[in-house]
Amino acid sequence: MEDLDAALCRRFEACVADWDGTLVPDRAAGAEPLRQVVEGLCATGFDVVVITGTHVENVDGQLRARPPGPGRLLFCVNRGSEVFGCSEDGLVLISRRETTAAENAQLDRAAALTVERLAARGLEATIVAQRLNRRKVDIIPLAEWADPPKARIADLVAAVEARLASAGIKSVEEVVAVAHAAATEAGMVNARISSDAKYVEIGLTDKADAARWTFNDLWAHGIAAGDVLVAGDEFGELGGVPGSDSLILVPEAEGALAVTVGAEPFGAPPGVLALHGGPARMIEVLEDQLRRRREGQPPSPTRTPGWCVTVEGLEPEHERSRAAILTVGDGLIGTTGSLLLSHPAAASETRTAGFYDGEGAEEHLRPCPAWNQLDAALDSAARVSRALDLRTGVVAYDVAHNGATVSAVAFSSLAEPGTAVLWTQGDGELLTQRSGARESTVTSSQTGSVTVHVSDTRRDGAGDAVVERLAVYARGDGDAARARAALVSCRGINAVHRAHREAWATRWADADISLRGDDDLQRDIRFALFQLMGAVATTGEAALGARGLSGDGYNGHVFWDSDVFVVPFLAATCPAAARAMIEYRVRRLATALARARALGREGARFPWESASSGREITPTMVIGPRGERVVVRTGEMEEHIVADVAWAACRYADWSGDRSFESGPFVRLLVETARYWASRIESDADGSAHIRHVIGPDEYHDDVDDNAFTNVIARWNLRAAAMRAGAHCDNDEVRRWNALADRLVDGLDAQTLVYEQFTGFSGLTPFPLREKYGPGPIAADSLIGFDRVQTLQVVKQADTLMLHLMLPGEVHQGSLGPNLDRYLPITAHGSSLSPAVHAALLARMSRHAEALELLRFAAGIDLDEASNPAARGLHVATMGGVWLAMAEGFAGIQADGDGLLVRPRIPEAWESLTVNVVYRGVRVRVRIRGREVTVDTDRPMRVVIARD
């Protein structure tokens, strides 16, 4: 179509269209050309939705389409009262608005009153149909206008207005007002009144209801409004009343491209593109969409506010950090969003989960060959734009290079982990890739090998060339990779993209946090959730390192962060991924048991840092910021990891209700960690119990006694195991655990309700941390010196306060406020984990200004380029902390036995906060607006809403 409007010269993912006058000229016309293009579009993954006032037999009987998919054909008929799906197996009813006898009586009464009131004014009107959920009143019941063609709409309007004028009625709008009044008198609430000039319809539903359902359904399949083409023929006014198709433009449709192919005698309204030409023109538009898809044109991701992270330009000094920000992952592989064309500052990196190499502290995630970069070199003067669509997990690239342009989309399939796609369109000379396949295998001394199979398919058109690259990663030799690549290739790249998009839609439906009132924070929160979801597998085991699969920071080693900050998010949104993380610990329980024995202890001693084997691989020495040698004792003394692992397992069990886990590996994990503490605790002559020579979360102070966090979480571990051990241990052992828990000191001052962080902390030298260095996170060990900071009352990160986050039931009631006042002013936030923890706790105390300051820092830590914070990978545990701050801090959602407790505390500046979670298989949506709380669930469950 040479004269196609520029707005249509792109690829859409769905079309929502009226029937009569838009897709067909009338109900007697043949629809074979339309059937062919609809079935063709559906075969490429495109959705077609028909919204009409007629019934399904009329539409289906005329179209006779039976698309095999993967795209869908939907009929929203009877003005929003019914939805049918249509496939090669025929029609399937998806939803129907059922009326009650009382509602039908109201409709009858409203229609009769309308005819009666119009007759009283001298206008004859008749009730011509009693259709599902609506009544139809003909205001020009004359033989010559019995079935007016769409082409005569202007003549119809003129005839209606003349007839109305003869009765002293000014316009159709006045007739609609009469119908509204009649509906109200008949007892109808929210009656839907519409008119197409000839008829006035009184109903319980209308096209707006159909449109709302449609756009919500498309969203649930990963299609945003910006990817939708809306078509009609009556958007403009008819007799002073908006055309019936205007009802399709509901708020949910914002961003969609609306076109009219109708005559529109009074003009198309603003925002609607006038094409004219009727159904023949509409078929041309659809055929153009089919052509684009068959020729391989890549998708055109929309930059929906709140769902997009953009990176503009080329800045070599920030490139590593920027690439990490644009990481796409599927749980099995993660790939940084490096520059599309090669450049000295850019090196795309792909990492495979659990694929470690090296020995001891040097064991690291081994990079694999990347898939998302082209061969051509990038000129330093090139214009570069990249955008990560968080909603669909796609990175879009646009490059202007030496007079040529190239665009691309890249994604790592969430539906088929280990499968990645680079889909490129641009100047044929710039795209040097030719069709063909290649394969490489990377071998590790620790974890076997990974084979990468990459195939390029090139299509050369009259202008641009298209290259479709498919990369498949598989463990072992090339057979598995080749077999999977063959299966995926047979389905086609459009099907792969659709499945990926729908997989992300499903994850977001269970995990989204919607915040109205702070656009930047909304984007940052979704960025955090997106990266968390893409970093963890949903099957097998998942070893999540401190920087996920986005960088080489900490060599990919697994710390407590994953158990304490990431598992809670996944347990509440994707239990299968949380189980995979717990499975990583369970499968290394034997190694933890062996280490405890080697230390002369009982039970299981989990490592502070681990990788493939589960052995302790924490370095014993590192070079400090001033070049000094710093002894590292965390592997030896940061023993709270033992209870952290047990706590994470308990968190998963409580939220998931996974009975097979609770009756099997969970109990053994609890028992063996409790046995470790029972052998680790020392008892004094006075009967008190102690844990000496440890490091708490505050790593500025090592080799301390009775760290409050360590002692209280160990106490919890003992009691939790005693309560759930059952037949796994005898009564004497359970009694011993409970006795030790009761005698274990915790440093609580009964007068002030402040927990002393460890024995002697209050005797350290006070230090004016904030007066000297101001607000914000600081590396106090670097600024002050590690040796000196150990002598000061300066805390690296939330330590004692972690108890209030993780174990609020284990601390003294009313102690949160005093401990915040004691420790927050002296906390340096030298760990990225710290700000989100404090934000969550400050939110619980309704100290919103302080909470928001720290929350914004945590949520935006990787997106702030000032110091290249993401150069070695993203702070995934901090992202988990952001979720904890939002879900548990501000929304106040907590597990409460067989249900949930919701105790919200949101700032006045926020218009609303909506949090989606899954609790024991029930999907829950909590919406907070001021003091109003609404909870929706897909099955009955107990929810308690509380206020302070």
From TrEMBL:
GO terms for molecular function: carbohydrate binding; glycosyltransferase activity; hydrolase activity, hydrolyzing O-glycosyl compounds. Residues 526-883 form the Glycoside hydrolase family 65 central catalytic domain. It holds the Pfam family Glyco_hydro_65C. Residues 896-942 form the Glycoside hydrolase family 65 C-terminal domain. SUPFAM superfamilies: Galactose mutarotase-like, HAD-like, Six-hairpin glycosidases. Signal peptide: none annotated. InterPro entries: 6-hairpin_glycosidase_sf, 6hp_glycosidase-like_sf, Gal_mutarotase_sf_dom, GH65_N, Glyco_hydro_65_C, Glyco_hydro_65_M, HAD-like_sf. It comes from the Bacteria. One of its GO terms (biological process) is carbohydrate metabolic process. This is Family 65 glycosyl hydrolase. It comes from Candidatus Aeolococcus gillhamiae.
